[in-house]
Write a structure and sequence with these properties.
Elements: E1 11-14, E2 28-33, H1 34-39, E3 50-55, H2 64-79, E4 84-88, H3 99-108, E5 112-115, H4 119-149, H5 160-172, E6 174-179, E7 184-188, H6 192-204, E8 212-213, E9 219-223, E10 233-238, H7 244-286, H8 290-297, E11 309-316, H9 322-333, E12 338-341, E13 348-355, H10 363-376, E14 381-384, E15 388-389, H11 393-407, E16 414-416, H12 423-426, H13 429-444, H14 447-462, H15 465-472, H16 476-490, H17 497-513, H18 519-522, H19 529-532, H20 536-551, H21 556-565, H22 570-577, H23 581-595, H24 602-616, E17 622-624, E18 630-632
Parallel strand pairs: 2-3, 3-4, 4-5, 14-16
Antiparallel strand pairs: 1-5, 6-7, 6-10, 8-9, 9-10, 11-13, 11-14, 11-15, 12-13, 17-18
Helix pairs in contact: 2-3, 5-7, 7-8, 9-10, 13-17, 14-15, 14-16, 14-17, 15-16, 17-24, 20-23, 20-24, 21-22, 21-24, 22-23
Length: 634
């Protein structure tokens, strides 16, 4: 026990093989006299896990009553889990223990020893043992206290593992690595992965559920969550063998790291599920399924989508920084807006901000986004739409994308619209309202008829009748009958894309804008739609949309004209162009990418339709319908 004090030497008398007792832990020394033992061995006070020193004058060999008293003492020692019985005295020899005591020693697992050192020397030794134990306890308490200080306030803290690994490496003067099969989660120092890689590879081929000395000397590996099937491993390597206390400390750290790892996995799974649910809600909003989107978001952000109007924002940034942009936007305005990464463009973040009152136009949110985008870097920009009905967020998104394309060219990289920068908003509003009311006047003569038409036609024009019926919760025949009646009254053919675009544009002006037309204007002949499209702001808008298309080496404009001329049917367009259907579809996808429009939506087709006419100046592409509609000419 005291390697530097040779006089404090213990000689093992029994058992002959002492190997099984080398790891016994000594908590102190209990000194008892022969007189006390003879007077009543059951009354002797013994310390748990101590070495019992029997002091006093003893015969050369214990006999009779003395042997019986020592046997009782040994049995009491077993109950107190004492480590060994030592007989002390200057003349004591190995023959002091008779065979009966040796047999009892075997039965109880308590070694028998002798020493020649004086009792006073062992009393001093006991005090030193107590001092050492106290120092070790204080040191371990200090270590555990420091370990607790490394714990994160939130288990999902991404830096928690690294802080704990740094602390363990410093405390044990060790190399520490926390890793999964495919990546390093924490390393201290940064070169630890190189030194411990071989140990982890060896472990992956053996039993991953046990602690052991593996791969290299003084290296210990622990699976952080063996019963959960997780493959995260803590590896610790030291220059000197790890003590039992250090091994326990590593196990404590492993338990804490296991909880952090479990929280990290569960947080990631929950985040993935939340992100997927938000994306589903966003897609439902774009499809006009507002009620379903509200149900999806109810448990995550109750009431977020309850307002009837909203603005849409588009943030463009570098692809490598998009996830960080989503997190920062969510932290800043996540309780006020629906924020999702764009599944179709890796550099884009999409944001829906519901407007809760007429006085609230989203100024606070737009100001916060403007500030954030300013911190994202030189390649980031922000576009925002005006206030739209929740059922028309697809149109709001198109406007926000258009605004963002303008924003990328602005000094501050921001283009926010309060009233809108889409086609409808760019038209001369009073004159466009006059034109729209004049076009739709046959539908507005009867109030009951108009109510049914304004509800049905926008959806019936944008979707196949079966889909429109499902969205409107009407029978398909009802939708078909109302659409047919409208086409008859307006002298339109809704099988033609130009007629659908014209009527949908007029409906949006009348039902969503509701601008008062002065009596002087109302009494005059309305301008034609082609005249309205000649406005300078519409010209600039069209040029911005078509410019990327014109820069493409393929003749995408010819494909677009043919596709529109054949009312968005690919097969006849491909025959007219002499191209395969695959090539035509490829050209259409390129058009979508260049113009940032969804050509499966009526609003996307409308923007393509109008921008081609306005920007190319081809008088044959778009002509006035006799009744103020549009016709596409191949």
């Amino acid at each position: 026990m005291f390697a530097n004090e040779p006089d404090l030497k213990l000689t093992v008398v029994w058992p002959l093989s002492f190997a099984n007792h080398h790891e016994s832990k000594v908590a102190g020394i209990s000194i008892v006299s022969v007189t006390e033992v003879m007077a009543g061995p059951t009354q002797v006070r013994l310390k748990t896990s101590s070495v019992v020193l029997l002091a006093g004058v003893l015969p050369l060999r214990l006999r009779g009553r003395t042997t019986a008293a020592v046997e009782v003492l040994l049995q009491r020692m077993a109950k107190q889990r004492c480590v060994a019985l030592v007989v002390t005295g200057p003349a004591v020899s190995s023959h002091v223990f008779p065979q009966s005591l040796r047999d009892l020693s075997d039965d109880l697992g308590i070694p028998l020893m002798v020493t020649s050192a004086q009792t006073e020397r062992w009393s001093d030794a006991h005090e030193r043992i107590m001092d050492r134990r106290l120092a070790a306890v204080e040191r371990r308490a200090s270590q555990l206290n420091l370990l607790m200080q490394q714990l994160p306030t939130q288990l999902s803290d991404p830096k928690a593992m690294q802080r704990i690994a740094d602390w363990l490496a410093q405390t044990l003067d060790a190399q520490v690595l926390v890793s999964e099969p495919t990546r390093v989660l924490a390393s201290s120092p940064s070169t630890a992965a190189e030194h411990l890689a071989q140990a982890i590879i060896r472990q992956s081929m053996e039993d991953t559920h046990h602690v052991g000395q593996m791969a290299a000397l003084h290296t210990q590996l622990i699976s952080l969550a063996p019963f959960m099937g997780a493959e995260t491993v803590l590896a610790v390597a030291t220059r000197v063998p790890l003590s039992t206390a250090d091994g326990r400390l590593i196990k404590h750290v492993a338990k804490i790291l296991g909880l952090v790892d479990q929280a990290r996995r569960e947080y990631r799974a929950a985040s993935d599920a939340t992100r997927a649910a938000r994306s589903v809600a966003f897609d439902l909003l774009l499809d006009g399924e507002v009620a379903k989107a509200r149900r999806v978001m109810t448990n995550m952000v109750p009431g977020l989508l309850e307002p009837d109007t909203a603005r849409v924002f588009v943030v463009e940034t570098e692809q490598a920084h998009r996830d960080a942009a989503v997190r920062r936007c969510s932290a800043a305005i996540g309780h006020q807006a629906l924020i999702v990464p764009d599944s179709r463009r890796a550099q884009r973040v999409l944001i829906v901000h519901p407007i809760r009152s007429e006085e609230d136009n989203g100024a606070a949110v737009s100001a916060e986004l403007t500030h954030l985008v300013g911190t994202f870097g030189t390649h980031s920009s922000l576009g925002g739409s005006g206030v739209y009905s929740m059922t028309l967020l697809a149109d709001a998104l198109h406007e926000a994308i258009t605004a963002q394309s303008f924003a990328a060219l602005q000094p501050d990289s921001v283009a926010l619209s309060v009233h809108g920068s889409d086609l409808v908003s760019l038209l001369p509003q009073v004159e466009a309202q006059h034109w729209a009311r004049h076009l739709l006047s046959p539908l507005m003569q009867d109030e009951a008829q108009w109510e049914s038409m304004r509800e049905t036609l926008p959806v019936a024009l944008a979707y196949p009748y079966t889909v429109a019926a499902r969205r409107l919760h009407l029978h398909r025949n009802t939708v078909m009958r109302r659409a047919a009646r409208a086409a008859e009254l307006l002298h339109m053919n809704f099988g033609r894309v130009g007629d659908r675009v014209t009527v949908a544009l007029a409906l949006e002006m009348v039902t969503q804008r509701e601008i008062a037309v002065p009596s002087a204007v109302a009494g005059s002949e309305p301008r034609s739609l082609t005249g309205l499209l000649a406005a300078p702001q519409v010209q600039a808008w069209a040029q911005a949309l078509v410019r990327p298309v014109q820069a493409d080496r393929r003749d995408l404009l010819a494909t677009a004209r043919a596709w529109l001329a054949f009312d968005t049917h690919v097969e006849p367009a491909s025959r007219a162009l002499g191209l395969s259907e695959v090539t035509v579809r490829s050209h259409l996808r390129a058009l979508e990418n260049h113009m940032q429009r969804d050509l499966t939506s009526l609003s996307g087709v409308r923007d393509l339709h109008v921008s081609l006419y306005v920007a190319t100046g081809n008088p044959g592409l778009l002509t006035d319908h006799p009744d103020d509609g549009l016709r596409v000419v191949a």
